[in-house]
Design goal:
This protein is α/β, with parallel strands linked by helices and 267 residues long. 37% of the residues lie in helices and 23% in strands. The protein contains eight helices and ten strands. Helix 2 runs parallel beside helix 4 and helix 6 packs antiparallel against helix 8. The termini are far apart. Bound molecules: adenosine-5'-diphosphate and magnesium ion.
C-alpha cells in the first residue's frame, strides 16, 4: 500500500509567550489527519481555531510540540520540499514582474527553461499577456492568479492552501475556485485546503474536516463529499445533495463558530 501524501499523527502545538514563558497557549491538540495522494481535503473551523497552525506544521514551517508529520511515509524534518503553499496574504515580490515572480522558484533551482515554463503557467491561469506587469499594476484577482502560477509551476506533489481566495469578490473567487479544480482534475495532486467558508469547502473537496474552537482545537467531524465531478462551484451549490451536506456539516460547525466568536469578543 502506498503511504498517504500527508499524515498528521497526533500533532499538538503549544505557543509559549516570549515575554513570559509561563504563559502558554495550546492552539491544537492531538490532531490526526491524512491526505491521500490525489485527494482534496478541506479543513474548516472558526477563526483563530488553529487552521493556519496545522498548515504551517504540514509545510514544515512550524515544528509540532508533540506528534509527527509524515510526507509520503517519511517523517518530516525541516521544510516540506514536496509541498507548494499558497497563503492568504499577498506573497508576490513587488519589485519583480508577474513573469519574474512565477519564474523565481524555477530559476532558484537552476531550471534551464524556467522562462518558458513560467510563461506557460501564466497562460494557464489566464494571464498570457500580463507577464511584464508589476504586482501593483494588476487587480487583486490577477495577483492571486500569479500566486497560483507561482505555486504550481514548481509541480509540487502536495498543495497547501490557506484561505487563498478569501480577499476576493465572490465572482472572481468562484472563477478561481473552478480554475483550481480544473488544474487539480488534470494533475490529481494531494491538496490540503484551509478555509472558514463551508460552501467553498464542500464545493471543492473530496472530504471536509471540521475543527473545534480553540484552545486545544481538534477534529470533531469528517464528511465525505460524494458530489459528482467535474463540478462547477457556483452550480453545485444548488444540488439537493450539496444542501443536505451543508446542513449536516453546519450542525457540527455552528456551535464552534459561536464559541470562537465569543472568544474573539472576550479577547
Ligand atoms: N506565533 C504564535 N504565537 C502565539 N500564538 C499564536 C501564534 N500563532 C498563532 N497563535 C494563536 O494560535 C491560535 C490559532 O491560530 P491560527 O492557526 O492562525 O488560527 P486560524 O488560522 O484558524 O484562524 C490563535 O489563538 C492564535 O492567536
Ligand atoms: Mg488562518
Amino acid at each position: 500500500m502506498t503511504a498517504p501524501a500527508l499524515t498528521l499523527d497526533g500533532v499538538s502545538c503549544t505557543f509559549v509567550s516570549r515575554d513570559d514563558p509561563s504563559q502558554r497557549y495550546t492552539a491544537v491538540r492531538h490532531v490526526s489527519l491524512k491526505v491521500g495522494s490525489g485527494e482534496f481535503v478541506s479543513v474548516v473551523g472558526p477563526t483563530g481555531c488553529g487552521k493556519s497552525t496545522l498548515l504551517n506544521m504540514s509545510a514544515g514551517l512550524l515544528l509540532p510540540s508533540t506528534g509527527e508529520v509524515h510526507v509520503f511515509g517519511q517523517k518530516l524534518a525541516g521544510i516540506n520540499g514536496r509541498a507548494g503553499y499558497m497563503f492568504q496574504a499577498e506573497s508576490l515580490m513587488p519589485w519583480r514582474t508577474a513573469l519574474e515572480n512565477v519564474m523565481a522558484g524555477l530559476s532558484f533551482r537552476g531550471i534551464a527553461d524556467a522562462r518558458q515554463q513560467a510563461e506557460d503557467w501564466l497562460k494557464r491561469v489566464g494571464l498570457g499577456g500580463f507577464g511584464d506587469r508589476y504586482p501593483h499594476q494588476l487587480s487583486g484577482g490577477m495577483r492571486k492568479r500569479v500566486s497560483l502560477a507561482q505555486t504550481l509551476v514548481l509541480d509540487p506533489d502536495i498543495i497547501l492552501m490557506d484561505e487563498p481566495f478569501s480577499a476576493l469578490d465572490i465572482q472572481t473567487r468562484q472563477l478561481m475556485e473552478n480554475e483550481v479544480l480544473d488544474i487539480w482534475n488534470a494533475k490529481k495532486k494531494a491538496v490540503l485546503f484551509i478555509t472558514h467558508d463551508l460552501d467553498e469547502a464542500i464545493a471543492m473537496s473530496d472530504r471536509v474536516v471540521v475543527l473545534s474552537a480553540g484552545p486545544a482545537s481538534h477534529p470533531i467531524g469528517e464528511f465525505h463529499i460524494d458530489l459528482e465531478r467535474p463540478r462547477d462551484v457556483a452550480e453545485v451549490r444548488t444540488a439537493p445533495r450539496f444542501v443536505d451536506l451543508h446542513k449536516a456539516i453546519w450542525d457540527v460547525l455552528r456551535e464552534e463558530v459561536l464559541k470562537g466568536y465569543k472568544q474573539q469578543l472576550a479577547a
